[in-house]
Amino acid sequence: MSESTEQLPWFCIRSQPRRERIAWSQLSILPGVTVMFPRARYVRKGAKGKRLITEAIFPNYLFAQFDPKQSARAVGYAKGVSYIVKKGDAFANVPASVIAELDELTDEGIFEMPPAPLKMGDEIKVVAGIFEGSEAEIVGLVPAKDRVRILLDLLGRATVVDIHTDEVDRPSSHPLQSG
Questions:
Q1: N or C: which end of the chain has fewer CB within 10 A?
Q2: Which residues form the NusG-like N-terminal domain (predicted)?
Q3: CA 47, CA 55: separation in Å to the nearest integer?
Q4: In the chain, alpha helices (H)
Q5: Full-model pTM
Q6: Are residues 132 and 97 in the same domain?
Q7: What's the domain count of the chain?
């Protein structure tokens, strides 16, 4: 960033639902506007194998640095933007330290999420094999064979089954929401 843009305030932008990427691309081409769109990238397991997923860390929100006197109208009416977040009658400033920390934690706005290790007591979803679609609890780990022991309800009876770790995923769709 140049010295002049470092002096400008940062603002929170609300995008239209699921249109963060469109808002980001439109704001990025506006003169005098710098955009930060923090995203998380992680591996999601499914029936067709592993996929690399990239999602907004703050769904429907991104950040923009601009001179409100010169660019507020263009920013507010950019395609994909719903509005600039306000506090009272004024646009709500986002502290530059928050943006700096997000920038430090990400690589070009993307935070790489390593897969969390499975552990006893985790609630999982079976995404492949004959038990696909079932939800279960991990009751044991068999790391030497890359398998987990899960407790399934089969025919009205709790049954312990060993399955490969590639056949399970956590039910949460967003890595920051899983516990």
A1: C
A2: 10-101
A3: 20
A4: 3-6, 20-28, 68-76, 96-105
A5: 0.66
A6: no
A7: 2
